[in-house]
Every structure is written in structure tokens, then in C-alpha cells.
Amino acid sequence: GVVPLLxxxxxxxxxxxLPWGEMxxxxxxxxxNLLSGVPYVGGAMVEWIWGGFSVDEATLTRFFAFxxxxxxxxxxxxxxxxxxxxxxxxxxxxxxNSDADIISFHPYFSYKDFLGFAGYAS
Length: 122
Hints:
The protein has 122 residues and is mainly alpha-helical. It has helices at residues 2-20, 25-36, 42-50, 57-88, 105-121. The chain has a single domain (2-93, 102-121), classed as Cytochrome Bc1 Complex, Chain C. The chain starts with a helix and ends with a helix.
């Protein structure tokens, strides 16, 4: 659930930057620090995301593309989450059956997700 959450937050952030074409120094600092912490390619990622040394047309075009593409990535991550995580459960990634008498993890949370989505959609 953390990866889809981060994707939703990134989508909202790049959408927030778009209308004004600017961001706070704090936001730029956070993004720069997070990306520069990636081993080996962090510096190149920082230069690529900003399109140079300032927030200008290249950055806004890139953020617009991200804001358009991220919902599809979110949908894919959500499908993967529902298919694979709920099959074994986050508390049992190996899928070992520790107690056959308990209600299994997968059906409960799959139905809960389905009902939550149905309630949200209606």
C-alpha cells in the first residue's frame, strides 16, 4: 500500500506545481535531496527532473507529462497490489500456512477492498 500512496502523492504534487509554474524553495530542496540520495544516478536524476538549473518550461512540460501518466501507473500498482499482496498477506510474504483454522487473509481483504471501491464509486 505504500507504493500506491507515494504515487498518489507524487501525482498530486506535480499537479499542484503546474498551474502556477513555480514551487517553494522548500519543495525544490526536498525533491533535490531525495533524488540526490539515490546511489550512482542521483546527480543525473536531479539535473533531469529540473531540466537544467531552474524551474522553467522544460520542467513544467515534464511535470505535465508525469501528472498525465501517473494515474495509469497508480492503476497498475493497485492491480498488482490486489493480485499479489493480498494473496499471501503482508504479514506472511512466504505464504506459509501457520494455522488452517483461521479465516484466511486473502478473501477478507479482497472483499473489503471490493466493497470499499463499490462504496467509493457509488
